[in-house]
């Protein structure tokens, strides 16, 4: 794990460059208030009609649905309040449902390596090793690990290839478009999903719903991201692009 524990200046610069050159990459495929709203059957919720290629009216085709076999979950302000390892009860309940429900594609028995926490704190630098231990201790019964950033790799959004390789090595996926990245930040989580060739889910309110006890004020970057997303979607008519190559590969 290289670099200082807190610096992600290159990530910020990349976000600004992407916003100027490819603004649609900032948009998520699905927006939910918090992680607790994540659908178990995620695939159909990621696709909208405008994502489908145009076809002649005399040759209608069935809408193609992504198959999601792996979840990448952010930690700070998605699963836990920022800079903590405290899971709100509703978040733990949702994680338990995803790992223990017999109908869940992320069931720990049928898909033991289907969920991975990828954080720019825990697992990204030795400074935060205590967070890794605390998270994995609390989630041991659900078999949810924390990703350790390999030596020489960079933080989100630049570690997507290493994350895809983690799932490939465990035979969870064949293609990156079988992964959904879930997080509260457009400039890291959503951008990383696009760079990976995966789908993105934005937890717009963070770890707590609007008005819920414990919810704090958004910081300046979070406020800017909310404004940017609304502007691109409502004023500019932008749509999140599907993962590269997904149309050609088939289901």
From TrEMBL:
Record Pfam families: PGP_phosphatase
InterPro entries under this entry?
A: HAD-like_sf, HAD_sf, PGP_Pase
- What GO molecular-function term can you cite, just one? phosphatidylglycerophosphatase activity
Q: What is this protein called?
A: Uncharacterized protein
Species per Swiss-Prot/TrEMBL record: Penicillium daleae
